[in-house]
Write a structure and sequence with these properties.
The protein is α+β, with helices and mostly antiparallel strands. It contains 16 helices and 18 strands.
Length: about 475
C-alpha cells in the first residue's frame, strides 16, 4: 500500500462520468465504465433479478424455448377471410387491433380512425358518426391481434370480412395470421377511412385475395424463412425495408398467377398492385415471426420475450414463462426523420404489432444487413451495425437461419432475455414508422425507438414469483 501512489495510477471509474473527468484532468489514466444499478435502482426488482440469474429452472426453460423458436418452420399455406380463419370473429362484432389491450376512450387517433373505417367496411354502420357511436356504446368488441395468433402493422385492424395470410408452423402445426398490406398513402392502418380507402379494401377482399388464393393453389406452400434469409443478404431487414423480400415473392407469384386461369385483366391489376408496394411482404414477415415466437411461448419459467407490441399509447410485452400476461408501460418516443412539414408534436406514440420482427431477431436487430435503412430512419450505417452488435448483449443466442453479411455472416441476435435487459440496462431496439396523431393523415416519418424498461422490470418480478 505504501508504494501504491508512487507508481502510475490506472483507474476504472464506475458511475458518474464527472469523477472520471476530474481524474483525467489530474493526469490519471482512467477508463469510465458506463454503469447504473439494475432495474432502474428498484431494490425489490433487483433482488428478484438476482434470484433468477443462473437459476437452473430458468436456464433449462430458456434452452427449451429458444430451441423451439429456432426449429419453427413458418410456411404460407392459404388466404382466408378473418371470420373463416379465426372462429371468434364469426360469432360477434369483433375487431382486432395492434398492441396490448386498450379500451375505446383511451385509443389514439389512428386506431380510432381505423376502427371507424373497419365498421364502415363491414357495413355495420352507414356513416362515420354512426360507426363512432357503435364503438363508444360498446356494440363492438375490441381485442388485441395477439390474442388470436394474429399481427397487423400500425393500427393493426382486422375485421371479419378482411382477407388474411395464413401461416402454418410445420414443426407444431399451429397457425398465425396477418392482414394484407394496403401500400402507402391514405390507408386504414394509419387511420384513414374515406371512400378511396374503403374502395381499396373491398377490391382487396373481392379480387386481390381470391387471386392470391388461386396462385397459392398453383404454387403450393411457400417457405418464408428462406425468403427472409435471402432478403437479409440483399439489403432488407424485413421490417421497414422489404424491397428485396417483396421482389423475391413476386418472382414466385407472377408465374403462378399466369398459370391460374384467371382473366388477364385481373392478373394485370393484382400484379400492378403488388409491384407498386415495396412493403407488400411486411405482413408476411410479421406473421412468420409471430409463428416463430408462438413456438417459444408458454414454456414454464422461461424469461424469453415472445411478444413486443404497441397500441399508440402503451408498449406491451409478453414473456414465455408468464403465459399470456401483459406487462405494459407508456410507449417511448420515436427518434427519427420526419417528412417535410411535420415534427415531434405531430406524432402519435409508437404504434403497431410490427415489433414482432425485432422480437424474432430481425428488423432493428438485423439493421447491419440494411445500411440503406438509415436514409429512412436516421443515423449512419455504422449506427445500424452497432445496433445489431448491441442486441447480442441481451439475447439468448443467435439464429443461424438469418445471417448478417456486414458482421461476417454472424447470426442475428435472437431470444430477448428479460433478465439481461433489466440487468444490463440495454433496451431492445426497434425501427418503426411514425404515424400522425390525427386519424387519416398517415405516415409522417420513420425512426428508432426502444421498448420501455418498466415492462421488463414487472416481468422479472412476476417470473420470480413462479420460480
Amino acid at each position: 500500500m505504501n508504494t501504491l501512489f508512487q507508481q502510475p495510477l490506472h483507474v476504472v471509474n464506475a458511475g458518474l462520468a464527472s469523477f472520471a473527468d476530474n481524474l483525467a484532468l489530474a493526469g490519471g489514466d482512467v477508463i469510465n465504465l458506463s454503469w447504473q444499478p439494475p432495474a432502474l435502482g428498484n431494490v425489490e426488482a433487483g433482488l428478484a433479478l438476482a434470484s433468477l440469474i443462473r437459476h437452473p429452472l430458468v436456464e433449462q426453460a430458456n434452452e427449451q424455448a429458444f430451441h423451439q423458436y429456432l426449429v419453427a418452420q413458418p410456411v404460407l399455406v392459404d388466404v382466408m377471410t378473418a371470420s373463416s380463419a379465426i372462429s371468434a370473429m364469426s360469432q360477434s362484432k369483433l375487431i382486432l387491433h395492434a398492441g396490448p389491450p386498450i379500451d375505446w376512450p383511451n385509443m389514439c387517433g389512428p386506431v380510432k380512425g381505423a376502427i371507424i373505417g373497419a365498421i364502415l367496411f363491414e357495413g355495420w354502420a352507414a356513416t362515420h358518426e354512426a360507426a363512432e357511436k357503435m364503438a363508444q356504446d360498446g356494440a363492438i368488441r375490441f381485442e388485441p391481434c395477439h390474442h388470436f395468433g394474429a399481427v397487423g402493422p400500425m393500427a393493426g385492424i382486422i375485421s371479419p370480412s378482411m382477407p388474411l395470410w395464413v401461416i402454418e408452423n410445420k414443426t407444431n402445426g399451429r397457425r398465425t395470421f396477418s392482414n394484407f398490406n394496403e401500400g402507402l398513402g391514405k390507408v386504414l392502418r394509419f387511420g384513414a377511412n374515406n371512400g378511396e380507402v374503403l374502395d381499396r379494401l373491398h377490391w382487396m377482399k373481392d379480387e386481390l385475395a381470391p387471386a392470391l388464393k388461386a396462385a397459392l393453389k398453383v404454387l403450393g406452400e411457400v417457405e418464408l424463412k428462406p425468403i427472409m434469409a435471402q432478403a437479409l443478404h440483399m439489403g432488407d431487414e424485413v421490417h421497414n425495408r422489404n424491397a428485396a423480400a417483396t421482389g423475391l415473392l413476386i418472382k414466385r407469384l407472377i408465374p403462378a398467377l399466369l398459370s391460374s386461369g384467371l382473366p388477364i385483366d385481373t392478373i394485370q391489376r393484382v400484379t400492378a398492385f403488388i409491384v407498386g408496394n415495396d412493403h407488400f411482404f411486411l405482413n408476411l414477415s410479421m406473421a412468420a415471426c409471430k409463428a416463430m415466437m408462438d413456438a417459444a411461448h408458454n414454456v414454464p419459467f422461461s424469461s424469453m420475450i415472445t411478444v413486443m407490441a404497441r397500441n399508440g399509447v402503451n408498449f406491451g410485452i409478453q414473456m414465455s414463462g408468464t403465459g399470456d400476461r401483459w406487462f405494459q408501460a407508456p410507449a417511448n418516443p420515436v427518434e427519427g426523420l420526419f417528412f417535410p412539414g411535420y415534427g415531434v408534436d405531430d406524432a402519435a406514440a409508437d404504434l403497431g404489432d410490427s415489433a414482432i420482427t425485432e422480437t424474432a431477431g430481425v428488423g432493428g436487430f438485423a439493421m447491419a444487413s440494411s445500411p440503406a435503412i438509415v436514409k429512412f430512419v436516421g443515423g449512419t450505417p455504422a449506427d445500424a451495425t452497432n445496433n445489431s452488435r448491441r442486441m447480442q448483449a441481451i439475447t439468448l443466442g443467435g439464429n443461424p437461419a438469418f445471417t448478417l453479411p456486414a458482421l461476417n455472416f454472424a447470426p442475428t441476435a435472437a431470444g430477448i432475455d428479460a433478465r439481461k435487459v433489466v440487468d444490463r440496462g440495454i433496451l431492445p431496439i426497434i425501427n418503426t414508422g411514425i404515424a400522425h396523431k390525427q386519424a387519416g393523415v398517415g405516415q409522417i416519418g420513420a425512426g428508432i425507438t426502444t421498448a420501455p424498461m418498466p415492462g421488463f422490470i414487472d416481468a422479472i418480478r412476476a417470473l420470480a414469483e413462479y420460480v
